[in-house]
């Protein structure tokens, strides 16, 4: 009943506002971000904290994995990316776990329903298929639903080129006998568009587990990955366009049993996905739909073998409409249906989760420089019922004359993380689970010195409640008899600050530095996360076709729990320097690039009991046509 009432209310409100619109023309903006509001908004007018990695930024990270690149984003800590190739990767935005950060691929959440937390595994996606990345920090469940409690990472894949035929070929060689090849081919002609990309990488790697026994020799743990992505579309006229996409991903990685322990274990993953994306544009707005089906298989070959099949159906319809020169709105309906099978344990006809969410979002941009973004969403779930969330995000942008301008922002949001299919239906599942909840507030400012420099400061706080965790059960004699997932009564507060400065001294020289501090009132729930982190870099082009890029990363002390000694252990801080060089030939159609990572061969521990990469190298050639 609540769902019908909320949906009817949205429809009535929407119709009334559309009827009241004026006849002023729409102004379209050029340099924009979309993740924070799902509207096209210039960065300096956005009321959210957004960090964007462009295609040029990704090019200057050639040879690095997606995890390595994201580790340089302020306020984002990656774990496992410095280990053996193929190592599991965790990501923490503002002290939150994987399940509290939503990964979008071309605007669609492609969570793995067969994983414990239904999160997305960043190891499966090659950087060569990515056009840009927007990292939004703060709660955004109103726009994107479950999982967007601490942030959203929106990964936009490459699109067909505007000319009839365009493409690129790339080949890399790197340390640990790592070889990678990538191809991109696409174009647009007579209304038709097409693109095919392929990627292959193999690496012999090195032992994942740390070898402390001088008389033992641990095996190398390598990995391989193959990816194919295709896109095609047809523009019928200036108003209607229809796109389809299909992708295949295969992944294989060796892994060890646990810390300090070698083993010949193997994990395998295969995924197919298919999507359609119709778009219709009319005078003052547009309607678009996104429908994606993905299926995957995961297997683990070890002393504890396991096999999982997952199925993810995503369907969403959105209407954007500009009511006047100062007000635009969005209304959407989102359907998610996730299911999985665990070999010998769970049947697919019972392990299913369905969510149907209506939502609305409004953005007012007044001539005075004041902008207000607000929204609401009703999450309806086939197990626990309904959950209402909202957000309000005012910001004020003004200039003082000349090129100097300022932005002040604040936000209040509520968000949620639904229990995963595994937590509901597995052998340890519990159908009485409720979603995790969070309330976030943040405030900050930015100063823009034209196109030369930019200073940002943000303070944030996130109050979390009803966390889901595995609870062990014991009999009266203290013997372990099993366990299940439960909502804990614990509450946790996370707060911190983020500061960033970017400076462009001239067209060929730019630099940046970022600092992030995060803390909590429950340190025992904060393992593996540094309180302090610095990142910085300098990009210099000494020649018209040559580039030098230097990156610095300081990661502070981290506390972890050692299950061997049943005590807390502090992992020392570490700092890394990476250097990237490139030079273009033949009008930059042919580019050579090379990189030295961990230049000073820093020895450090990222995950207790596991290895990290020392100084390592990569080089390659890329040809564009």
Description:
The chain is mostly beta strands. It has one domain (2-624): Maltoporin, Chain A (Beta Barrel), CATH 2.40.170. It contains five helices and 33 strands. The strands form five sheets. The chain has a 22-stranded antiparallel barrel. Strands 1-6-7-4-5 form a five-stranded mixed sheet. The radius of gyration is 24 Å and the shape is globular. The termini are far apart. Mean pLDDT is 91; it is low at 5-13 and 15-31.
Secondary structure layout:
Elements: H1 2-19, E1 49-53, H2 55-59, H3 66-70, E2 76-79, E3 90-93, E4 101-105, E5 108-109, E6 130-137, H4 141-144, E7 151-157, E8 166-174, E9 178-189, E10 192-206, E11 221-235, E12 240-255, E13 265-282, E14 285-301, E15 306-322, E16 327-342, E17 352-365, E18 370-381, E19 385-399, E20 404-417, H5 421-425, E21 436-449, E22 453-465, E23 468-474, E24 480-487, E25 491-506, E26 509-520, E27 532-543, E28 546-555, E29 558-562, E30 567-571, E31 574-585, E32 590-597, E33 616-624
Parallel strand pairs: 4-7
Antiparallel strand pairs: 1-6, 2-3, 4-5, 6-7, 8-9, 8-33, 9-10, 10-11, 11-12, 12-13, 13-14, 14-15, 15-16, 16-17, 17-18, 18-19, 19-20, 20-21, 21-22, 22-25, 23-24, 25-26, 26-27, 27-28, 28-31, 29-30, 31-32, 32-33
């Amino acid at each position: 009943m609540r769902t019908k009432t909320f949906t009817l209310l949205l429809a009535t409100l929407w119709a009334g506002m559309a009827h009241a619109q004026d006849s002023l023309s729409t102004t379209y903006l050029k340099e924009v971000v979309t993740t924070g509001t799902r509207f096209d908004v210039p960065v300096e007018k956005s009321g959210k904290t957004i960090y964007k990695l462009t295609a040029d930024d990704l090019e200057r990270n050639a040879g690095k994995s997606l995890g390595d690149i994201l580790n340089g984003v302020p306020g984002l800590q990656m774990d496992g990316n410095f280990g053996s190739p193929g190592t599991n990767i965790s990501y923490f935005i503002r002290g939150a776990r994987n399940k509290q950060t939503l990964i979008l691929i071309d605007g669609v959440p492609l969570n793995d329903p067969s994983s414990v937390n239904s999160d997305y595994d960043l190891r499966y996606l090659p950087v060569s298929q990515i056009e840009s990345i927007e990292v939004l920090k703060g709660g955004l469940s109103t726009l994107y639903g479950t999982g967007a409690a601490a942030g959203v990472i929106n990964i936009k894949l490459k699109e067909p080129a505007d000319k009839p035929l365009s493409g690129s070929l790339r080949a890399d060689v790197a340390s640990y006998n790592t070889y990678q090849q990538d191809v991109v081919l696409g174009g647009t002609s007579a209304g038709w568009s097409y693109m095919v990309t392929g990627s292959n990488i193999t690496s012999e790697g090195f032992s994942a587990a740390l070898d402390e026994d001088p008389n033992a020799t641990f095996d190398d743990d390598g990995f391989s990955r193959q990816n194919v992505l295709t896109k095609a579309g047809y523009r019928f006229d200036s108003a209607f366009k229809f796109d389809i996409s299909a992708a295949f991903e295969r992944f294989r990685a060796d892994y060890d049993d646990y810390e300090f322990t070698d083993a010949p274990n193997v994990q395998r993953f295969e995924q197919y996905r298919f999507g359609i994306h119709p778009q219709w544009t009319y005078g003052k707005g547009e309607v678009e739909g996104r429908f994606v089906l993905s299926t995957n298989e995961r297997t683990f070959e070890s002393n504890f073998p396991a096999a999982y099949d997952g199925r993810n159906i995503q369907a969403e319809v959105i209407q954007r409409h500009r009511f006047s020169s100062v007000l635009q709105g969005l209304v959407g309906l989102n359907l998610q249906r996730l299911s999985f099978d665990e070999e010998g344990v769970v049947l697919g006809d019972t392990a299913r989760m369905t969510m149907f969410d209506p939502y609305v979002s409004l953005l007012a941009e007044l001539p005075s420089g004041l902008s207000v973004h607000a929204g609401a969403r009703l999450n309806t779930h086939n197990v626990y019922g309904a959950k209402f969330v909202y957000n309000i995000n005012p910001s004020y942008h003004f200039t003082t004359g000349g090129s100097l301008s300022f932005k002040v922002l604040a936000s209040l949001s509520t968000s949620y993380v639904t229990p995963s299919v595994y937590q509901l239906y597995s052998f340890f599942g519990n159908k009485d689970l409720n979603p995790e909840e969070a309330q976030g507030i943040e405030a900050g400012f930015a100063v823009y010195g034209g196109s030369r420099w930019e200073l940002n400061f943000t303070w944030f706080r996130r109050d979390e409640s009803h966390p889901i965790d595995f609870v062990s059960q014991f009999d009266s004699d203290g013997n372990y008899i099993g366990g299940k997932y439960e909502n804990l009564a614990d509450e946790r507060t996370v707060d911190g600050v983020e500061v960033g400065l970017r400076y462009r001294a001239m067209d060929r020289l730019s630099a940046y530095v970022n600092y992030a501090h995060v803390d909590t009132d429950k340190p025992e729930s904060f393992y593996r996360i540094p309180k302090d982190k610095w990142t910085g870099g300098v990009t210099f082009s000494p020649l018209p076709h040559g580039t030098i890029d230097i990156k610095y990363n300081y990661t502070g002390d981290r506390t972890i729990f050692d299950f061997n000694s049943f005590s807390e252990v502090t992992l020392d801080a570490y700092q890394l320097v990476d250097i990237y060089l490139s030079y273009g030939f033949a009008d930059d159609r042919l580019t050579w690039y090379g990189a030295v990572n961990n230049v000073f061969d820093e020895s450090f521990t990222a995950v207790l009991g596991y290895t990290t990469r020392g100084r390592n190298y990569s080089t390659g050639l890329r040809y564009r046509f």
